[in-house]
Amino acid sequence: MRHRPFRTAFLAPTLAMAMPIGLAACSAGDESTADTTASASATPVSQASTSASASSSASDVEGVEFKKVEKRDGGTFDFSYSWPAEVSAEPKLAAALKSDMDSALASERAEWEKMIADAPADCVSCRSRGFSRDWEVVADLPRFLSLSMQIYGYTGGAHGNGGTRGVVWDRQAEARVRPMDFFTSAPALENAVHARYCPALNRERERKRGMPVDPNGDDMFSGCPSIDELRVLLGSSDGKAFDRIGLIADPYVAGSYAEGSYEVTLPVTTALLDAVRPEYRAAFALRK
């Protein structure tokens, strides 16, 4: 279920690598050539600014869109990393993402060099590697900036792997908070959303598959995933409080790779409010 008022577009593939805890599988190119590109609005890795003042707003700064493409020995290295202006307006958060970007670029390029060196002569796809991390705003509240991250990796083969992650920046504490940490426990959150989530998920499955779903069937993608298998995003309809929650099932969690990811958005209810930790209760509101 894709609805841009909650979150911007997804990448489809399934997850192959995890987001660092601190934040939260080609075609041949010309031999011996390198093409490093960045869009006109891009900020190079070495120059990505993290020096915005604490009072900066998203209108005062720009987002970062970095892209690097190299072609050599019949293989391609394709790396991209981006974050929006709202992140650039938070110096400590921007600094953490820039550090992650620099580290990922160095690591992924080193792995690509190794792939080229080790690739059999008859394996074209073994020479290419792709990587992307794209951060997007889910909700921007006075205290909290809720973000989603789309991650994708290609390390050879028929297709790559990707998925979704969520993180919330607490401006007051100047610290990252996992969406799950807003709740008293995973079981408490699951109990609050399970009865609404599972039927909504099956409606989306039926829409994609063109046939009814038997929740008690033997098919591995007929059951309802547990909250631990889902990615949680905190959203807002008014920019004042979190009043909806996004539950993302990456490919292979609720459906096949071909079905892509499944997104279900649920309004905040009294039952869900009861699952919120007391120190964060003021940041949530019932959906009007």
- What is the name of the CATH topology of the largest domain? Heat Shock Protein 90
- Report how far the terminal alpha carbons are from each other: 21 Å
- Using DSSP, what is the number of strands? 9
At the fourth level of CATH, the homologous superfamily of the largest domain is Fervidobacterium nodosum Rt17-B1 like
Share of β-strand residues: 15-25%
The total count of helices amounts to 4
Mean pLDDT: 82
H/E series, N to C?
EEHHEEEEHEEEH
Domain count: the total is 2
Strand order of the largest sheet: 1-2-3-4-5-6
State the shape: flat
Largest sheet: 6 strands, mixed
SS class: alpha+beta
Domain Deacetylase PdaC: 74-161
InterPro entries: PdaC
Region (Disordered): 34-54
Keywords: Signal
Please outline the helices and strands:
Blueprint: E1 64-72, E2 75-83, H1 85-88, H2 91-118, E3 129-140, E4 144-154, E5 161-170, E6 175-177, H3 186-209, E7 231-235, E8 244-249, E9 262-267, H4 270-274
Parallel strand pairs: 2-3
Antiparallel strand pairs: 1-2, 3-4, 4-5, 5-6, 7-8, 8-9
Describe, in short, the structure shown.
By secondary structure, the protein is of the alpha+beta class. The chain has helices at residues 85-88, 91-118, 186-209, 270-274; strands spanning 64-72, 75-83, 129-140, 144-154, 161-170, 175-177, 231-235, 244-249, 262-267. Mean pLDDT is 82; it is low at 1-22 and 24-55.
